[in-house]
Every structure is written in C-alpha cells, then in structure tokens.
Design goal:
This protein is of the alpha+beta class. 34% of the residues lie in helices and 19% in strands.
Amino acid sequence: RTPFNVTITNQRSFAARTVPLAEVKYVAKHLGGSVNDVVMATTSGALRRYLTELGCLPEKSLTAAVPVSLRTPGDSRSNNQVSMMVVPLCTQEGDRAQRFHDIHDAAQANKGVMGQIKAAIPTDYPIFAAPWLISGLNTMLARSKLINQLPPLANVVISNVAGLQDTLYCAGARVVCYYPLSIPTHGMALNVTVQSYNGRVDYGLIACRQAVPQIHELADFVLEEHQQLLALARQAEANGGKPVVATAPAQAKDKTALPRKSASVASTGPGPKATQAATASDSL
C-alpha cells in the first residue's frame, strides 16, 4: 500500500512533461528492450524517488496496471478489445540498469501468458445503464472509504499509446504537443498516460490532489530518470553493447532531491541529436 492507494476526492492535480522519441528509442535499442519498457522504467524510477523523499517507499515492488490491446492485425471491428495486466515495477531495486532488465523480463513474461489466454478474456462489456451503475458504485466507495482497507490490485495505472508521427493542425494552427489526460480511480489515485506525437513522447500525470499534492516534483523526476537511462544507454553503446553496471553515484541519485522547476531536457554527448523537450503543468 502506498499514498496512491486510497479513496479519491473530486480534486485533481495534473502535470505534463515531454522527452524526445528519438532518445526513448535510443535507450530501448542499447539497453535491450522496447519503447514501452523505457516508459515503464522511467516511471518506476520516478515513483521510487518520489516515495523515497516522502519516506514511504515499500520494501516490496510497486505494481502497475497496464492496458493491453488484444486486437489482432487486420481486425477492424468497432468494438473494445482491450484488457489489463499487472506488471511489477521493481522499485525495490536500486540499480537502474538491473531495474530496466527486470521490468523488461516481467513484461515479456506477462505478455506471453496474456497471449495464451486472450481468447478466454472478456473485452467488451455492453451493460445497460452502465453510467448510472458506475456512478452509484463510485459514490458508495467514496462514502464508505472501503478502498482504504482493501489490498490494492495495483499501485498505479501506466498506459502507453502510440500516436501519429505527422504534424496535426487545428483551424490552421499547428498542434505543438499532445498531452494525454486520463482518469484516476478509487484505489489508484495516480494515472500516468503517455502519448507519442510527431517525434515527441508526452507524459500526462493526473492524480487526486489530496493523494499526490507534489505531482510537479514527480513529473520532474520523470525527466531526470529519462536522462539517467539515456546516460546508461550511451555507456552501453560505448562498451560495445555489453551489460551496464550502475555506478555508486548513479545509485545515490535515487535519493537526491531535484530542483523544483525544470524548463527543458537537453541532450549532450553521443547518442541522438540534442533536443529540447518542452514542459507544461497545471492544476485542476
């Protein structure tokens, strides 16, 4: 159980951050994973540091509820074909390189199991009067605070959505960024949704404001963790693709506070061309 696994209120906090897609792909290539693994590892490191600063990092790994598409190639039916799998974030591991590989292995294992049983998983739920039923259930959970007593199914929702890589326009104006805004729920007060767009990877973090009041600090940790993984990828490339062993300073940074404002992410040294990543944040 973490501060995220509580009954939520109707107040929200929101923060958005951006990293270059080229850098995310570079990390995936040289650390031996996928873009989704990079997103998971980046979020995992940020959550580890956030909870460490609060003094409530669990000894056991946090878990993420991750939406998974079950749609087969060529299936154009207009119905929902999505399920959810729970992936360990390996937040108990202080070595970033090892954490990345552990998350990759766990995600691959879960995907394999999901592939074997997906035919038996219900994916579309056409329920009459569903909005009223769900609204009533949420009201009951909010008043009873039963969620505060039940073991959480997962600690956080993390969703990665592949978006368009072309420039979009609205009424003649160029769309600069595409920050996703998702939904926190009772028991999982923090939702991290990621959308790629036109060479960018846009993170949208939304939470119950009472459960996650320092969401801007958490979003800054996302940027810093991305830079740490990028440094590991460059080290791996310099080593000829050999496994990276995290150094003591890199591990120590897990517990180091960041500056409270971060205007951009700039890359230097070997790897993808240096790119600035804009940031945006707001409270609802």
